[in-house]
Design a protein that fits this description.
The complex is a heterodimer of chains A (292) and B (587).
Chain A lengths: L1 H23 L2 H38 L11 E2 L1 H8 L2 H7 L3 H27 L5 H23 E2 L3 H4 L7 H5 L2 H9 L9 H15 L5 H20 L5 H21 L5 H7 L9 H9 L2
Chain B lengths: L6 H18 L2 H18 L4 E3 L1 E5 L7 H16 L3 E3 L5 H10 L5 E6 L7 H6 L18 H12 L2 H18 L2 E14 L3 E2 L16 E2 L5 E6 L20 H6 L4 E3 L5 E3 L2 E6 L3 E6 L13 H12 L16 H6 E8 L2 E6 L3 H4 L10 H4 L19 H4 L11 E7 L3 E6 L19 E6 L3 H9 L5 E2 L17 E7 L3 E6 L9 H8 L4 H7 L5 E3 L26 E2 L2 E2 L1 H10 L3 E3 L2 E5 L1
Parallel strand pairs in B: 2-3, 2-4, 8-17, 8-18
Antiparallel strand pairs in B: 1-25, 4-20, 5-19, 5-20, 5-21, 6-7, 9-10, 11-12, 12-14, 13-14, 15-16, 16-17, 22-23, 24-25
Helix pairs in contact in B: 1-2, 6-7
Classes of the chains: A mainly alpha (292), B alpha+beta (587).
C-alpha cells in the first residue's frame, strides 16, 4: 500500500513540476543550465550535504523524541494550555467541511505541500546565481533543526487528539491510505510548531525575496502556502497556535538564511589550507575545491 | 495542589525583631502595642483562599479515544461547579508510569484490566499497597473497614464469600475511591475465508488463538494491533507496557488457564488438589522452555518468590511485581516435593487460591540475573527498581505454545509455533496452535485496520475496534463481526493521598458529576454497560445493580446536562465555600 501511495505521489508531483517549469522558467534558462550545471552543482554541494545530514538525523531523532519522556524537567506538555488559549477555532473551521473542501485540503496537505517544497529547488537551480537556492536549502535546514528543538522541549497533541468526537481526523478517516505515508515522517506529539506551515512559509518568503526573477511563482506561493497552513488546521492535525508558530519559524529561517549564506566557504577553507601539496593528489584536491 | 503555609516563619522572625525594639521602649507603651500587634499577626498569618484547581490525567485520542472524551466531559462539569481544571495528555506508557508508578495525578480517566474474580479488588484497594507501583492501589486508598472486608472475602468460600463480597462492594461504592463508569463491549472483525473457529469471548486471552481451523492450508495468521507497545516490550510483568495481552500469554504458560467458557482448566499443571490451606500441583513432565531448558518445579517456585520481590532480597526495599500482586500475596509458602510436584501454601480460601495458577511461569535461568538493581550511568535510580521491572525482555523465552520470531518497533511482532509444546502431544487434548506463524501488524487506527482486513491483508483485528467505527462495520460472506463484553472497565481514579480527594464526600460529589448512562450512549455508541460496581454480574449485589441511574451516586441532572446548583450544594455540604462562582480553598 505504501509503495502504491508513494508512486502516485512521485508521478503527480513530477507532472506538476514539469508544468511549472514550462510556465515559470522558460526554455532559455533550461538551455543555459544544461551548459552550466556542473559549476552550480559544485556550488550547492556543501549545503545540500548539510541538509541531507540534518534530514537523516531528523528522521532518526524524531523517532527517539517520545523516548525522551524522562527529561521531565524541561519537557512540557501544553495541549490543554493551547486549547484554553485559542478555544474552538478549529471546531468552527471544521464546521465548514464539505466533501469537496476535504478533498481539496487533503490534496494540498499531501501533493500541494510536496510540490511547494520541491518546485522552488528546481526553478532556483535554473538560475545562474546559486545564492537563492543555497539560501533556500539553508532555510530548510534551519526549519528542521529549530523544529526538532521545539519538539524535544514541547509536547503537544493536535486537535483531533483532544476532541476526537468533534474534530475529525479528516485526512486519515477519509483516505486511510495516507496514514501509512505520514506515519513514516511524523509522530503525534510533534505538533508545535507546524512544520508543514513553517516550510510552506519559508518557500513563500523566499519567493518574495526572488519576486523580481519569478514573479508568477511568487504570486502562486501565496495561495498555496496559505492553503497548506489552512489544511493542517482544517484536517484537525494542528492548532492555530501551531500554525502561527510555524509562520514565525519560517520567517526566522529565511532571515537567518539570508544572513548566514556566503559567510563561510568550505572551498576557501580547503584552498587556504597549507600542506595539501605534501599529500599525493593534494594539489588536485585543492584545485578541485579551490575554484569558485 | 494545596501548599503548606510558609508565612509563619517570616512573620515570626520580624515580630521577634520588633519585640527587641519594644523591650527597649517604655513598659506602658509596650503593653498598649502588644495587643494591637497580636491582632495584626492573627490577621496577616492566615493563608488566602484560592480557587481549587485539579488536573485530569488521561491519554490522547490516539491512545484511548473513549477516555479523553470522558475526561473532557468531566472537566466541563467540574468547571461548571467552579473548579479550575486542566487535562494533561500522556502517551500509553507515560500515562501508566504517572498513574501506577509515580502516583503523580489528581484524577485520571482510564481503563482497568479487570478480572473475572472480585478478588482483584484486594490489590486494587488494600491500604497495604498504597506505596507500591502497579495496579495495586494506585489511589493510595486506606480504610480499615474496607481492608477487613477485603480480607474476609479472601478467606471464605461459597455463600459466605458471596455475602462478604457484597458487603465489600457496598462499602466501596459508598466511599468511591474510584468511579466505575462502564464495561465496554469488545468488537472485533474477522475474516473466515482463511481461518474459522473463532471464539468471540476468548480473543483477549491465549485460548482465542489456539485451535483455529485453517481453510485451504493457510499457515500464517495475520492480525492487527492498535497499540504499538507490544512491538517494543515483551516483559510479562511490566506495568507500563502490559495490559491484557494475548500475545504475551501465548509466549508464557501458566499452571492453569481459562477455556472458552471461562472455566479454569489444567495447563502447565496436569492437575491440582486443594487440601484446605494449600494447592498440591503436579506439572507436565518433559516440557521445555523455548531455549530447550526443562520446565521444573524449581522454575515455578522461583516465579512465586521472584514476583514477591524481584530483587530476591538483594535490595534494601522490597521490589514486588507490578502485576499479579494479589495472586502473589496469597502465596504463603512453596515446597518443592519433586521436580514435578509442588505444595503451594496459601493464606486464602480455595476460590482466591486459584488466582495463583494464572501467573506466567518464568524461566529461572533467564530471570534470576535480572534481580539486580537497574543502573543507568550518571543517574540515580529509584530504590527497588530492578532490571526485571524495566527490561524489554526481547527476545522473550517462555514455554508457551508460540515462540518469538521477529519484531520491528511500531511495525510488527511475529511469533512462531513452538513445536515441542505439550499441547501438540497426541495424548494431550488441550487447544493447540494450528498455525505456523502469527504476525501481529501494528496499525494505530481502527479505519485502516479495517481496510487492511477488507483488502484481505489481515485476518483479525486483534485489538478491539474503537467505538466510532462500529456503525460502518458490515458482515459479508467472509467477514464477521464478533462482540463480547470486555473484562476491563472504564473508571475515574482519585489520588486519595491528599486534599481534596482524601475526602470521601468530595469524591462522591465528583462521582455525581458523571452521567454513566449518557456516556455509554454517546461516547461508546451504546456498546457498553454502565456500572455502579466493577465486578461481573454474578457478583454484583442487588443494591448495586445499575438500572436507570447509579444507585449510590446518581448523576446531578439528566441526559448529560448538569444541574449546576444541585452539584454546587453537594460541594457546599462537603464543607467547601464559594467566592462568587469559584470554589475556593486555602492556598
Amino acid at each position: 500500500m505504501l509503495v502504491e501511495v508513494l508512486t502516485r505521489l512521485a508521478l503527480i508531483v513530477a507532472l506538476m513540476v514539469v508544468l511549472g517549469v514550462g510556465v515559470f522558467a522558460g526554455r532559455q534558462r533550461l538551455v543555459r543550465t544544461v551548459r552550466e550545471w556542473p559549476t552550480r552543482v559544485k556550488a550547492i554541494a556543501p549545503i545540500t550535504v548539510l541538509l541531507a545530514t540534518v534530514l537523516l538525523f531528523n528522521s532518526v531523532a524524531r523517532q527517539a523524541v517520545p523516548e525522551l519522556s524522562w527529561l521531565r524537567l524541561i519537557r512540557k506538555e501544553i495541549t490543554w494550555t493551547i486549547y484554553e488559549t485559542e478555544g474552538d477555532l478549529i471546531l468552527w473551521l471544521q464546521a465548514q467541511a464539505t466533501p469537496e473542501v476535504t478533498a481539496y485540503f487533503s490534496f494540498i496537505y499531501i501533493y500541494g505541500y510536496v510540490f511547494l517544497l520541491i518546485f522552488p529547488v528546481v526553478v532556483y537551480f535554473l538560475l545562474p546565481n546559486t545564492r537563492p537556492l543555497r539560501e533556500l536549502f539553508t532555510a530548510y535546514t534551519l526549519n528542521y533543526t529549530l523544529g526538532l528543538v521545539c519538539y524535544i522541549l514541547i509536547i503537544a497533541y493536535g486537535p483531533r487528539n483532544l476532541e476526537p468526537e468533534l474534530i475529525q481526523a479528516l485526512l486519515y478517516d477519509t483516505y486511510p491510505q495516507y496514514q501509512h505515508l505520514t506515519r513514516q515522517v511524523n509522530r503525534n506529539t510533534n505538533v508545535f510548531p507546524s512544520l508543514h506551515t513553517s516550510l510552506a512559509a519559508t518557500v513563500a518568503f523566499q519567493a518574495y525575496r526572488t519576486r523580481e526573477i519569478y514573479f508568477g511563482w511568487y504570486l502562486l506561493t501565496i495561495p498555496l502556502a496559505l492553503s497548506v497552513a489552512l489544511s493542517t488546521m482544517y484536517l484537525g492535525i494542528h492548532w492555530a497556535i501551531d500554525v502561527l508558530a510555524g509562520i514565525v519559524l519560517g520567517w526566522i529561517a529565511v532571515v537567518l538564511a539570508a544572513r548566514l549564506v556566503g559567510r563561510w566557504s568550505i572551498y576557501d577553507a580547503f584552498a587556504d589550507a597549507g600542506g595539501l601539496e605534501a599529500i599525493p593528489g593534494g594539489n588536485r584536491l585543492r584545485s578541485l575545491f579551490g575554484r569558485r | 495542589m494545596v501548599s503548606e503555609p510558609t508565612a509563619d516563619e517570616d512573620t515570626g522572625a520580624s515580630s521577634s525583631g520588633r519585640r527587641a525594639f519594644l523591650a527597649s521602649a517604655g513598659v506602658g507603651l509596650s503593653v498598649a502595642t502588644a495587643g494591637c500587634l497580636r491582632e495584626f499577626r492573627s490577621a496577616v498569618n492566615r493563608t488566602r483562599l484560592e480557587q481549587l484547581s485539579v488536573s485530569i490525567t488521561t491519554q490522547p485520542a490516539d491512545g484511548d479515544r473513549q477516555a479523553i472524551q470522558i475526561a473532557r466531559r468531566l472537566a466541563d462539569n467540574l468547571e461548571a461547579v467552579g473548579i479550575d481544571v486542566s487535562v494533561p495528555l500522556r502517551s500509553r506508557e507515560e500515562f501508566l508510569r504517572d498513574i501506577l508508578i509515580n502516583h503523580d495525578f489528581d484524577i485520571y480517566v482510564g481503563r482497568h484490566p479487570g478480572d473475572t474474580d472480585p478478588d482483584f479488588l484486594y490489590e486494587t484497594l488494600h491500604s497495604r499497597y498504597g506505596e507500591e507501583a502497579g495496579w495495586q492501589n494506585p489511589f493510595g486508598y486506606a480504610n480499615t473497614i474496607v481492608d477487613d472486608l477485603l480480607e474476609t472475602q479472601r478467606t471464605t468460600d461459597g455463600d459466605q464469600r458471596q455475602q462478604a463480597v457484597g458487603d465489600l462492594l457496598d462499602a466501596v461504592a459508598a466511599e468511591q475511591p474510584f468511579v466505575p463508569i462502564c464495561r465496554p463491549t469488545d468488537v472485533r472483525l474477522v475474516r473466515t475465508d482463511r481461518f474459522d473457529g473463532w471464539h468471540a469471548d476468548a480473543l483477549s486471552t491465549r485460548i482465542g488463538y489456539l485451535d483455529l481451523e485453517p481453510v485451504d492450508d493457510a499457515s500464517t495468521l495475520r492480525g492487527t494491533v492498535i497499540d504499538a507497545r507490544v512491538s517494543k516490550n515483551l516483559n510479562p510483568i511490566s506495568a507500563e507496557y502490559r495490559g491484557k495481552d494475548p500475545l504475551v500469554d501465548l509466549l508464557y504458560d501458566s499452571l492453569a488457564t481459562r477455556d472458552h467458557e471461562g472455566t479454569l482448566i489444567p495447563w502447565l499443571a496436569t492437575d491440582w488438589e486443594w487440601d484446605g490451606d494449600a494447592l498440591l500441583v503436579s506439572l507436565r513432565r518433559g516440557h521445555t522452555f523455548h531455549d530447550g531448558e526443562p520446565v521444573t518445579a524449581h522454575d515455578v517456585a522461583f516465579t512465586y518468590r521472584f514476583l514477591e520481590d524481584t530483587s530476591l532480597g538483594s535490595s534494601d526495599v522490597l521490589a514486588p511485581t507490578p502485576r499479579y500482586r494479589g495472586a502473589i500475596a496469597a502465596v504463603d509458602s512453596v515446597d518443592i516435593e519433586s521436580d514435578h510436584e509442588l505444595r503451594i501454601g496459601v493464606t486464602t480460601g480455595e476460590a482466591v487460591a486459584q488466582r495463583v495458577l494464572a501467573v506466567p511461569i518464568l524461566p529461572r535461568h533467564r530471570w534470576e540475573p535480572r534481580a539486580e538493581q537497574a543502573t543507568v550511568r550518571g543517574v540515580r535510580i529509584a530504590q527497588g527498581t530492578t532490571e526485571a521491572l524495566i527490561t524489554d525482555n526481547v527476545p522473550p523465552v517462555g514455554s508457551g505454545p508460540f515462540e518469538f520470531h521477529d519484531r520491528a518497533e511500531r511495525e510488527h511482532l511475529t511469533l512462531e509455533r513452538f513445536g515441542d509444546h505439550f499441547t501438540a502431544r497426541d495424548d494431550v487434548s488441550l487447544p493447540s496452535a494450528t498455525v505456523d506463524r502469527l504476525r501481529a501488524q501494528i496499525d494505530p487506527r481502527s479505519p485502516s485496520a479495517i481496510s487492511l482486513l477488507e483488502t484481505g491483508d489481515s485476518d483479525i483485528t486483534m485489538s478491539p475496534l474503537e467505538a466510532y467505527v462500529y456503525d460502518d462495520l458490515e458482515e459479508s460472506a467472509e467477514k464477521r463481526v464478533l462482540e463480547t463484553p470486555s473484562e476491563g472497565f472504564y473508571h475515574v481514579g482519585f489520588n486519595t493521598r491528599s486534599a481534596p480527594f482524601a475526602n470521601p464526600y468530595v469524591r462522591r460529589a465528583v462521582a455525581r458529576l458523571i452521567d454513566e448512562a449518557w456516556l455509554v450512549e454517546t461516547v461508546f455508541e451504546g456498546y457498553a454497560e454502565p456500572l455502579a460496581t466493577p465486578v461481573a454480574d454474578e457478583w454484583t449485589p442487588d443494591s448495586l445493580v445499575f438500572e436507570e441511574a447509579d444507585p449510590v451516586v446518581p448523576f446531578f441532572g439528566e441526559d448529560g446536562d448538569l444541574d449546576v446548583s444541585a452539584a454546587r450544594s453537594a460541594f457546599e455540604a462537603a464543607g467547601y465555600r464559594y467566592d462568587g462562582d469559584k470554589l475556593v480553598v486555602r492556598e
